[in-house]
């Protein structure tokens, strides 16, 4: 031992647990007799890269470990493969040594070369628990430092903490529930607050007193500010601009004047920097301060309502972050070097004379083969790593180029949004009130009927003069014939008051508890500008763009015109039944007009029921799948006269300026009285002007309604708008018998009404309309140059003489525009009555807190609850994945549709027995 160098002796003493030898060398170091680095690393094969503390911890020499720590050994120093002494003690299960290291502030979160922290390398459950507790303690210490830095305004410490590889939780809280954002705001530390917001701090979190970081009204009521500023440009120097700060956006228009002093700089979200000077015509210092304060307010405003969390969905939960990939690459390189070294040493040992006679020749040959294979493997791995490194450089360059492209696109879209806003303002100022609405503009046609009952009959348009018919209509109202269902509905439902079922609602509300929050104060561009290049399904829109209904409740709006089904059931002719079913298929999408609000995505296991004795049906729906999102529903008549069911899987496509929703899934209507089943799919729905302009909706595509018993079919064509909007909302089609002979034609608008007429008359009208459309401009309701908006007693469909009215939409209530453009039926869907307590299950949409909060006008609470529910659903999914538990639907099961032989979700029964058990806790 005396022949070794002092440091080699030191390492050997630590390895062997020789406490006296360690103490002797440490004393000689103090007396300057020898020079020993207490953190020296071994150079021999047995201890290469290991410090004395590593060796003592690995072999469990507690007394030596304590002596080294007291002498100042670095407790967190890694060896050549990234392991700290805590890694070694945990790996060998040295519990007392682990406790000792933790007492000397050993870090429990250091990642080694194989991307593992100390708790990942131990097999001892007790040690793992100790390390997890230490990890939580470290995290809490960092959080306390973050809270203190935010309170004291220590921006450098705040930045340093947030820049760590494993930063503290930016939304952590103290005992009072105050987050770092609260602490910075209460102490008026504006720079720290802005840094926290830019780093992703959630502005919606409230403390235990229910207070957010800034009062809501201080954000909502911020004023638009505008004035003259000078902006620096690269080629033209300082140029004057008229700058408008509105809704979190900065808009400026160039004005050439002299350059004045009083400079300030604006750094935007895309890292671009703009320099401004205020005008000296007013107090320059005060003006500069006013602009900076306003910019801070608008920045907070934009962050508060227009930020969104891009949560990873189930299929991305296993994806690695960029940091994890970098760590894995470094670990792979370390392992590759270690493998090369070990193979080289092993080969040299095989060639040595001492081992030549120890093993049989066959075993030595096998060892050589394994070594050769290992060498080949390491060589291949080395090539792969070098290729990966080169590709990483190429990808980094491409990423920088894409960032620059996105920046250019962002600027172009910002310019487009500004120009569009200016164009809208000029159009509004330049147009007269009389011409504000024209035929090319999108509006609702208001029905002249006073009740839903009067809409259920047929309207006959006589074959005499169309002008005379219109005059009679204006004086006496539309000609409505009593339908079979009108009397049946009055006698069979309103008259039968003895049979009252649970939750059989009798009277309904006519408005929501609170009007909708104005979306005009929010810029959808401020959302999309941060989402360029992202997949559409990964963009989480703020709750302000939602409407207070679940998608399950939105599906229930199919049943608004149930009288058409009853009318079909009352008809003895199959063609007449097909007319009513076709009208029902068209009416099912009518409520979507002007409904640009997004319904809440249903949670897995969420349900909704609706029992309407006045309309003669009861419905149950359930969210049966989350990936893909599938909603199943089942409706049946209270008199067992029909069954209406289906499952919808909306497929979204983003086309740049519009979003297209294709509602995949078969819809089935069964009429047991005639042993008939009708199936169809809904048309495609498209929302236009996603980036700039006013949002509007159209439906287009072909819908085929099939009677599977008779072979009769109805082909409906929902026409796209076209270049000049002449075909907007139009629906045309034919009913064919089983021999494909046209029986009649259908036409109208899905937003207003649907008519039926003989096929020859319809085709003759279409030919005449093409040839001599100008001759019919004098007819009321078909003018292409109509300057006045349609009156409440007319519609915008060119009604052909001899037509029969199959369906007309009911007028929306007067307060519809303030209530998310809901119909009267839609306003009733989320109504929660006292008599529903104990009747509806705990999974019903009416009990969902985020929808209820939004309906009551509390946007902040709705946003918080929505996030909470999504996190709860995500945690439940992870728990099921860990326990290999599969989700089981409660009221529906997957099976074969008996009429189309395709896969469908079918009602399994039992819901209306009200025997709810084993329901999931989703709220």
Automatic annotation (TrEMBL):
Coiled-coil spans in chain: none
Repeat (ANK) residue spans along the chain: 48-80, 81-113, 176-208
Biased segments, Basic and acidic residues type: 765-777
Bias-annotated ranges (Polar residues): 480-489, 891-901
A Gene Ontology term for the protein's cellular component: perinuclear endoplasmic reticulum
Keyword Transport set for record: yes
Keywords, in A-Z order: ANK repeat, Lipid transport, Lipid-binding, Transport
BP terms from Gene Ontology: lipid transport
Similarity comment: family membership: Belongs to the OSBP family.
Protein name: Oxysterol-binding protein
Organism ancestry: Eukaryota, Metazoa, Chordata, Craniata, Vertebrata
């Amino acid at each position: 031992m005396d022949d070794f160098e002092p440091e080699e002796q030191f390492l050997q003493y630590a390895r062997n647990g020789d406490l006296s030898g360690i103490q002797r060398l440490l004393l000689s170091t103090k007396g300057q007799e020898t020079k020993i680095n207490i953190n020296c690393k071994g150079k021999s094969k047995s201890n290469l890269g290991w410090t004395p503390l590593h060796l003592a911890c690995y072999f469990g020499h507690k007394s030596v470990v304590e002596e080294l720590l007291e002498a100042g050994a670095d407790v967190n120093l890694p060896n050549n493969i990234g392991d700290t002494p805590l890694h070694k003690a945990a790996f060998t299960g040295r519990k007392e040594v682990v406790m000792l290291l933790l007492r000397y502030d050993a870090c429990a979160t250091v990642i080694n070369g194989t991307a593992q922290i100390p708790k990942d390398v131990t097999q001892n459950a007790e040690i793992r628990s100790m390390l997890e507790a230490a990890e939580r303690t470290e995290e809490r210490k960092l959080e306390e430092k973050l809270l203190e830095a935010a309170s004291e305004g220590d921006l450098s410490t705040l930045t340093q903490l947030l820049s760590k590889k494993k930063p503290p939780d930016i939304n952590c809280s103290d005992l009072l529930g105050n987050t770092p954002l609260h602490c910075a705001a209460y102490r008026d530390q504006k720079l720290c607050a802005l840094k926290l917001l830019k780093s992703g701090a959630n502005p919606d979190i409230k403390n235990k007193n229910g207070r957010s970081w800034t009062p809501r009204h201080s954000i909502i009521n911020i004023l638009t500010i505008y004035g003259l500023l000078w902006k620096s440009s690269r080629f033209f120097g300082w140029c004057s601009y008229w700058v408008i700060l509105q809704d979190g956006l900065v808009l400026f228009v160039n004005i050439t004047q002299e350059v004045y002093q009083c400079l300030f700089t604006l750094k935007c979200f895309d890292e671009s920097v703009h320099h401004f000077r205020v005008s000296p015509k007013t107090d320059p210092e005060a003006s500069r301060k006013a602009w900076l304060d306003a910019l801070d307010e608008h920045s907070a405003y934009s962050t508060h309502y227009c930020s969104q969390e891009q949560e990873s969905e189930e299929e991305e939960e296993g994806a690695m972050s960029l940091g994890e990939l970098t760590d894995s690459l470094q670990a792979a390189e370390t392992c590759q070097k270690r493998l090369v070294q070990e193979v080289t040493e092993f080969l040299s040992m095989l060639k040595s004379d001492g081992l030549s006679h120890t093993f049989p020749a066959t075993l030595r040959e096998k060892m050589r083969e394994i070594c050769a294979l290992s060498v080949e493997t390491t060589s291949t791995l080395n090539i792969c790593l070098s290729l990966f490194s080169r590709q990483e450089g190429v990808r980094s360059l491409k990423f920088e180029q894409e960032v620059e492209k996105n920046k250019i696109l962002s600027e172009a879209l910002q310019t487009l949004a500004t120009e569009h806003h200016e164009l809208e303002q000029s159009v509004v100022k330049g147009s007269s009130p009389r011409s504000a609405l024209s035929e090319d503009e999108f509006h609702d046609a208001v029905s002249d009927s006073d009740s839903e009952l009067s809409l259920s009959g047929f309207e006959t348009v006589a074959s005499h003069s169309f002008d005379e018919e219109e005059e009679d209509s204006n004086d006496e109202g539309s000609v409505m014939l009593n339908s079979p269902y009108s009397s049946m509905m009055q006698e069979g439902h309103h008259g039968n008051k003895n049979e009252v079922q649970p939750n059989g609602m009798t009277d309904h509300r006519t408005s929501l508890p609170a009007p909708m929050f104005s979306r005009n104060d929010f810029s959808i561009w401020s959302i999309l500008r941060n989402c360029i290049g992202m997949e559409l399904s990964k963009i989480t829109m703020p709750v302000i763009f939602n409407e207070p209904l679940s998608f399950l409740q939105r599906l229930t709006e199919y049943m608004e015109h149930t009288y058409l089904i009853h009318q079909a059931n009352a008809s003895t002719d199959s063609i007449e039944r097909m007319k009513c079913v076709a009208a029902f298929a068209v009416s099912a999408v009518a409520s979507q007009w002007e409904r640009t609000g997004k319904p809440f995505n249903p949670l897995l296991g969420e349900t909704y029921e609706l029992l309407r004795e006045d309309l003669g049906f009861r419905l149950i729906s359930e969210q049966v799948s989350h990936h893909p999102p599938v909603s199943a529903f089942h409706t049946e008549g209270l008199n067992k006269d029909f069954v209406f069911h289906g499952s919808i899987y909306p497929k979204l496509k983003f086309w740049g300026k519009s979003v297209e929703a294709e509602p995949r899934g078969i819809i089935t209507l069964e009429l047991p009285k005639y042993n008939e089943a009708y199936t169809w799919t809904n048309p495609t729905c498209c929302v236009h002007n996603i980036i700039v302009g006013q949002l509007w909706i159209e439906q287009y595509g072909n819908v085929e309604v099939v009677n599977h018993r008779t072979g009769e079919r109805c082909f409906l064509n929902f026409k796209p708008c076209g270049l000049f909007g002449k075909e907007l909302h139009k629906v045309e089609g034919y009913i064919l018998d089983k021999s494909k002979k046209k029986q009649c034609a259908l036409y109208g608008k899905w937003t207003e009404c649907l008519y039926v007429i003989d096929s020859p008359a319809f085709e003759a009208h279409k030919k005449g309309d093409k040839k001599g459309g100008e001759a019919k401009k004098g007819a009321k309701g078909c003018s292409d140059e109509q300057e006045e908006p349609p009156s409440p007693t007319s519609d915008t469909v060119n009604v052909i003489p001899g037509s029969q009215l199959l369906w007309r939409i009911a007028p929306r209530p007067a307060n519809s525009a303030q209530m998310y453009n809901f119909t009267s039926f839609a306003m009733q869907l989320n109504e929660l009555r006292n008599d529903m307590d104990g009747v509806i299950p705990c999974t019903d949409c009416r009990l969902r807190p985020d929808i209820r909060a939004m309906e009551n006008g509390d946007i902040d609470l709705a946003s918080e609850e929505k996030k909470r529910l999504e996190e709860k659903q995500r945690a439940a999914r992870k728990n099921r994945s860990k326990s290999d538990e599969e989700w089981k639907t409660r009221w529906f099961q997957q099976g074969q549709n008996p009429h189309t032989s395709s896969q469908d979700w079918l009602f399994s029964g039992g819901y209306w027995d009200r025997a709810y058990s084993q329901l999931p806790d989703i709220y």
